[in-house]
Amino acid sequence: MSDTPILARVPDPRRYFAMLDIHIERSRQDEQWGGPAFDDMHNPMDWIDLIDVQLDKLAHEGGPGVEADPVTPDHDTELVRQRLVKVAALAIAGIQSIDRLQVPT
After folding, report:
1. What is the pLDDT of residue 3?
2. How far is the CA of 4 from the CAs of 9, 17, 20, in angstroms?
3. How far apart are alpha carbons 8 and 22 in whole angstroms?
4. How confident is the model at residue 66 (pLDDT cuts 50, 70, 90)?
5. Exposed, middle or buried, 18 (CB in 10 Å: 0-12/13-18/19+)?
6. 39 CB contacts (<8 Å, ≥6 apart)?
7. What mean pLDDT comes out for the span 71-92?
8. pLDDT digit string (tens) for 93-103?
9. 7/19 Cα distance (integer angstroms)
10. DSSP letter string, 66-79
């Protein structure tokens, strides 16, 4: 076992923190929606639609039916980052569900 702190051994600590934030969001989503039992009711197209909703919110922060300016280069990067974390967590949820439901051949 190395005495070197873990972050010193990580090639890019920003990747570690990004993955940690995605993991935290994934856990939050499981808590909110009920976890695998809920996720596994979705088919691959559902996951694409769910991710598309988040991307639309990212492009037009404010949500469906709310007039908002499109994202511009000077847009709040923290809001963009938060939405991308949600997208990544949803993608992982979809991958996990597909893997659970895949029938072995």
Report:
1. 75
2. 7, 18, 20
3. 21
4. very low
5. middle
6. 33, 93, 94, 96, 97
7. 84
8. 999 999 999 96
9. 13
10. ---PPP-TTS-HHH
